[in-house]
Specification:
This protein is mostly helical. The protein contains 18 helices and four strands. The radius of gyration is 28 Å and the shape is globular.
Length: about 475
Amino acid sequence: MQYPVWQLPVNGGLLIALISVIHVFVAQFAVGGGFFLVMAERKGHAEGSNEILQWVKRHSRFFVLLTMVFGGVTGVGIWLIISLVSPAATSQLVHLFLYGWATEWVFFLGEIAALLVYYYTFQRCISGRMSKRDHMTAGWLYALFAFLSLFMINGIIGFMLTPGEWLRTGDFWDGFFNPTFWPALVFRFSLCLLLSGLFAMITALRIPGPETRETMVRWSAKWVCLPFVGLLLGAAWYFAALPPDQQAMILRRTEDIRPFVLAWPVVTPLLFLGGLAFFVKAGGRARAVLAGVVLLLGLAQVGAFEWVRETGRRPWVIHGYMYSNGIRAADVERMRRDGALSLTAWAGAHEVTDATTAWATPCWTWCRARPDAAWPGWRRNWPGRANCCPTCRPSAAPRQSAPRWPCTSPMRLNAAFPNSPFARWLRQTSSAMALLSLSVRLALCARLTAKARSNTIRVRSAVAIRNARRLA
């Protein structure tokens, strides 16, 4: 309880899940897509097909916008939401894996630089002003940096589920190379390659030439089907590496996990069958619909896995070390003995007395009762409860005894300590976060609108110049 509770009208864990699933879906495509781009370019050079190279160039532009722009925004969104919903766990991960995060950010910077070089020099490579080897080297560098970024993130995320020997030793490497590190890496990398094929099938449907379109659609479908071997082996290895209590949590103890546990073995074979369906010739519209369905199945598969993995930690946020409410396992005994206020650095009071808890249970009205040091200014009362203050309900008697620590609900804490640092922080942060979110959205919309307008002007200018040359 070193940080105040962020009050939300919805479940904070649900917000984390929604942002995380979308980000992971795009981020894993970013890893597998790097390998796909280089291999597709290699195929185009080997066959001497300018149409394949032009498609890879267009696909790389789509790749840059989706992974670097949208993926980057969702990545920042994850850091923002976990810092507000679970600040204690976020702080622990930052402090423990400080150099791990720094290394991952260096790899991410390498990703950005290599991908931008790869995209903006593609036309030079096609026109012969840049060697094929140099251009593909930039692509391989991006793929390497993307894989190393996955390597680092995988270790930190796996630590939260299975800390392993770290609970005893506290060593960085014991936490990083945890019991589920290698099975998770095999599973995630296979999924990355699968997702690269899913997105490629969608863009390949827009290739003008029917023969080249059919060739690249089928070639992309292979990237969907072949990684299933590693995907299934990684999933089985991953589950076997979990401790027995976490296996029981996933399979039997938690009812809200069950739909996702049952969905994963249904969605996964459907995804494989959807990839096989692209080897059958069909109309363009039917294939477009099928591609959209298969892409949604891929999102459902990623979402089911991530939901099961996250909820499998219950009631921990870092298994065996910190509970989901931010209380460390080592502090439980002290909290029971001295009360939770003894662990809170943000509360205005650090000891539970009748003065600080007598009227913490609110009612329908607002009052200015007890204008003393314990209750300066206005305080809000919770609706529908009987233990209201005498000013609001004269017939209500004061509470004769208060528990050592009432409830950690943020509404009750805010009512009990209206002018505490937490209450002020809550009011200021809520407004600031709303303004920041609105500003980011407006800036992004303005940027995308300006980019689209610039592209339209550029295309019209090119068409006008070409027509003028023809007339000349």
